[in-house]
Amino acid sequence: MAYLELNNICKTYGQGANEMEVLSNINLKIEEGEFVAIVGFTGSGKTTLVNLINGLLAPTSGAVLFKGAPVVDTSHERGVIFQNYSLLPWLTVEQNVLMAVKEAFPEKNKKELKTIVADYVEMVSLTPAMHKRPKELSGGMRQRVAVARALAMKPEMIIMDEPLGALDALTRGNLQDEILNIWGKDKRTALLITNDVDEGIYMADRIIPLRPGPNATLGPEFKIDLERPRDKTAMNDNANFKKTRNAIIEYLMDIGNERKTEAKEAYILPDLVPKDFVNQFKFGN
Amino acid sequence: MKASITFGKVTNFLGLGFFSTLKNLFTGKLEKEDFKVLLRKTIVPLASIVLFIGLWHLGAKSLYNIEAKFKIEKALKDQGQTAADALKVCIASGESTCQPNTLPSPAQVWESYKSLLRDHHIISSDKAAFIEKTAVLNAKRIAAGKAAITYTGRPSFVDQIFRSLQTVFAGFLLALLIAVPLGIFIGLSPTLKSAFNWFIQIFKPVSPVVWYLLVFMIVKTLLIDSNEDSSFTISFISVGFCSMWATLVNTAMGVSTVDKDYINVAKVLKLGTFQKIFKVVLPSSLPLIFTGLKITLSVAWMVLIAIELLAQSPGLGLFVWEEFQNGANDSNAKIIVAMFVIGIIGFLLDRLMLTIQNWVSFDKTDAI
Predict the structure, then answer these.
(1) Which of A178, A107, A166 is nearest to A140 (CA)?
(2) How far apart are CA B251 and CA A277, in angstroms?
(3) Is A52 at the interface with chain B, CB within 8 A?
(4) How many CB atoms within 10 Å of residue B22?
(5) pLDDT in tens, B319-343
(6) Which residues 106-135 of A are in CB contact (within 8 Å) with B?
(7) How far, in Å, are A147, B238, B363 from residue B231 at the CA level?
(8) What pLDDT score does A153 carry?
(9) What domains lie within chain A, and their CATH numbers?
């Protein structure tokens, strides 16, 4: 039995005539210690998928199984790093992380909790910004706080929803390395949702494309057979890397084109004749 | 983390930024670009004040002339030429008994202001003398288990101001204690929201006068055994009920529209209900709650005058009403003094709220 299992997941929003199926027939198995990336276009239902796995949403049909038990609510076992950081702006870096740690380890005393917070803030090298508020930090620093907050709860699985989407290329690269470093230390299971194929290849063991919604479903998986730790510059010349990258991009382009041709439906316009305004404004006859 | 506190920072924080420009003018640190700011922020307002006083003066003068002419004509018609001439001389001499009763001029208002201050000094020295005189006697009375003799003279204008402030703060506190918790409950629960919605919609637009009457009906019966003067109780409760709606609606709205991201964080971290309310929901709705409180305080101050007048509770409202009933030759001027005092205190209260809001709010962007 897999560590995380998604069986025939369907998720619809709305009711009646407005009903829209965002995800249909999603099947996914993730083994313990694996790093899986899901790559998809914006608006393909990636965030919905993440929320189903972390327990914020319930599937319309099908089941999400985590360690064999169905997911019914959020849990400290699955840490989430949100796309838009979601730090509480009225708390400092320390307080933001402390709030999470306090919930995860209610039995520990204040001093122990503070030590955990300090360790994780140190890990994302933000100790100098410990007492600053999110507003005073750059985008990359904010995301590092979010990473520290998620990891400080010591989750068994990390779920990342486009964590680096809003960052510039340089910060992005640095943070990718940091996340990989932390993941490499205790090999927790990780699920990364991203729209960047290169990021997926650099970080994950497996890449699974998400076909665009509505009715989004998972495409065939691509295994990444590259030695860890991976080197970004060396990777560019690696034949294996090039082959995988081209295959994934080709696949995504194909489904993109497919979608375009599908969209060419005929619009049936109602048979309307403009009103006779001249007569309408003649008063008193 | 402690930054040095400078004059500029303090004045900016209080929303009185033009003071720092003014200070620069006197210390000779004025740059050329600053001059434009100085013109806009200091000279233009000052000029408009001068213009306002000038127009007021001219208007008051013409109203005075109309009233005087009418009075003389009436005297001529009713009592004949001699009486009219005597009245003319009397008006021209500035004799207080025969002055026309109309809008007072700025100078008269200023005189009244000074006389009110003088009056305050006389009353407070009277009071001090009384306390001194009765100190020994009171000590004996208290020792004998009797009530002390208290000063029962008429309150001065300044006393009335403080009494009004007391009433408004008591009313504001009542509004805060009712509206904020209730608003949080309503905001959190859609069921409560639909239960209270009709109540809010119907009672929100009710006039202060009606609130006063309602509170009067209830409090009168509740305090039926008490010999104490209940006018203060009635007026502060009415003020609270009139003014709490803005806070109630704003709090409910703030709480029910917390950013979805923050709610998701609370869920993922598995915060308990209390933790969620106090650590996530309340801080994020604080700006809206404060906007509501600011409106509440200014509404409270506005309705206070009307309610004090009705309740016969001492304060500025009663002062205005008594001066109007009094009809002495400087009564009108005193009413105008009270009007300015009410306006200025209202402005200061608004500033006070803004300062507190800046203090507690995480979002340090400039508010208006």
Answers:
(1) A166
(2) 49
(3) no
(4) 16
(5) 998 888 887 778 889 999 999 999 9
(6) 131, 133, 135
(7) 60, 11, 41
(8) 87
(9) 4-77+155-280 (3.40.50.300), 88-154 (no CATH)
Tell me the pLDDT band of A217, cut-offs 50, 70 and 90: confident
Q: Verify whether the Cβ–Cβ distance B279 to A82 is below 8 Å.
A: no
Radius of gyration of chain B (CA): 27
The predicted structure's pLDDT at residue A285: 46
Residue B367: pLDDT band (50, 70, 90) is very low
**Non-local CB neighbours of B245 within 8 Å, separated by 6+ positions:** B179, B200, B203, B204, B296
Q: Cis before residue A229, ω within 30 degrees of 0?
A: yes
Interface test with B, best of A74, A77, A90 (most B CBs within 10 A): A90
177-196 of B, contacting A, C-beta below 8 A: none
B267/A103 touch (CB, cutoff 8 Å), yes or no: no
A89 in contact with B, Cβ within 8 Å: yes
Token pair 């008594």 in the structure block, residue: B322
Q: Distance between CA atoms of A4 and A6, rounded to whole angstroms? A: 7
Search chain A and give the residue with CA nearest B259: A86
Whole-number CA gyration radius for chain A: 23
Residue A65 CB neighbours (<10 A) = 16
Q: Give the tokens for residue A31.
A: 């083994």
Q: What is the pLDDT of residues A220-264, one digit of tens each?
A: 888 887 777 777 777 778 888 888 888 888 888 888 777 777 655
The 10 Å CB-count burial string (b at 16+, else e) for B324-338 is: eeeeeebbbbbbbbb
pLDDT, tens digit (0-9, with 9 covering 90-100), for B205-238: 888 888 889 998 998 888 887 777 788 888 899 9
Beta partners for residue B302, in sequence order: none
Select the residue from B258, B269, B277 to test the A interface by mutation, using most A Cβ atoms within 10 A. Answer: B269
Q: Please, which pLDDT band fits residue B180 given cuts at 50, 70 and 90?
A: very high
Nearest C-alpha neighbor of B172 from the set B245, B243, B231, B234: B243
